[in-house]
Amino acid sequence: MEGKIFVITSGKGGVGKTTATASIGAAMALEGKRVVVVDMDIGLRNLDVIMGLENRIVFNIVDAVKGKCKVRQAAIKDRRIDNLFLIPASQSDNKDALTPEGVIRLSKTLRKEFDVILMDCPAGIERGFENAVAAADEAVVICTPEVSSVRDADRVIGLLYAKSITPKLVINRINPYLVEKGDMLSHEDVTEVLSVDLIGLVEMDDQVIVSSNIGIPLVMNKDSKAGQAFRRIAMRLNGHSDLPIEIPQNGNGFWRKFSKKMGIGKPRRVHA
C-alpha cells in the first residue's frame, strides 16, 4: 500500500505551520506510522531546527530531486522517534530549483518508502505553494483566530479545491480568555467563514517555544496542551474521525459555568 501525502499550508506566514508539521509528524510516528516530514521552504529552512536535527544535514530535497543523492541519503532519522524522518530544504538554492514535476517524481519514491509524507508548505501562493501541493492527496490548513489569517486561509482553501485537494482545518493559538471576552474570534466564527472540516483546536501554549528551542517534539510533552491537541489531530488524520474535538476552556470548566449561571464574577452595578 502506497503512502499518503498531506500538505500543511496556511497562505499567511507566522501561524505555526512548521510547528504543526513537526508535531503532527511526530504524533503519527508515535502511533506506529513510518513518517517523513519534508521542508519545502527553499532558502529559508526551519523544520530542521524545530526537530533538533540541524547539525545532521548532508543532503536536502533539491539534491534528492536532482538525483545527486538517493531519498534514503537525504532523509535524516529523528533522534528520539525511530520511524520519523526529515528531508530538509536547501538554504543555498532559490525557489526555482524545484518544479512541480520534480516534486511529483520524488513523491512516487516517497510513497514507496513511507506510510505518511507531510509537506511543510512555504508561506504565500506562488512557486513554493505550487511545488508543495503538486502531489498532495489531502491538505491541512493552519489558521489562527485573526481576520487576516482567516482571509488568507479562505484564499488557499479555494486554490486547493481548484486542484481537487480536500482541505481540513486546524485553528491554532487560541486564547480562551480572549475568546470569552469577545476580543478574539471563536472557532465557530472561523468555521462559519471557511466551511471546511475542522480537525483540531490548539490552545496558545508557552511550551511551543520551549520545545522549538530545545528541539524536542512538542507531542512528547504530556503537560503541553498544544502537544496533546496535535496528538489528537494526528489520530483524526489517521482515520479516527469520531474522536471528539476538545474546545479550549478558560480556567476550571465546571466553576466557570457555575459562576456564569449564578452571576458570580460579573461586574456589579452600583446605584447612586
What does this structure look like?
The chain has 272 residues and is α/β, with parallel strands linked by helices. 40% of the residues lie in helices and 16% in strands. An 8-stranded mixed β-sheet has the order 3-4-2-5-1-6-7-8, sandwiched between helices. Strand 3 and strand 4 form a beta hairpin. Helix 5 packs parallel to helix 6. The protein is globular. 44% of the residues are buried. The C terminus is likely disordered.
* Rg from alpha-carbon coordinates: 20 Å
Count up the helices: 12
N-to-C span: 76 Å
Strand content: 15-25%
Helix content range: 40-55%
From the spread of the alpha carbons, the general shape counts as globular
**How are helices and strands ordered from N to C?**
EHEHHHEEHEHEHEHHEHHH
In short:
This protein has 272 residues and is an alpha/beta fold. It has 12 helices and 8 strands.
Which key phrases capture this entry?
8 strands; disordered C terminus; alpha/beta; 40% helix; eight-stranded mixed β-sheet; 272 residues
Which helices and strands, and how do they pair?
Layout: E1 4-9, H1 17-30, E2 35-39, H2 47-50, H3 61-65, H4 71-74, E3 76-77, E4 84-87, H5 100-113, E5 116-120, H6 127-133, E6 138-143, H7 147-162, E7 166-174, H8 176-181, H9 187-194, E8 197-203, H10 207-214, H11 225-237, H12 253-262
Helix pairs in contact: 1-11, 5-6
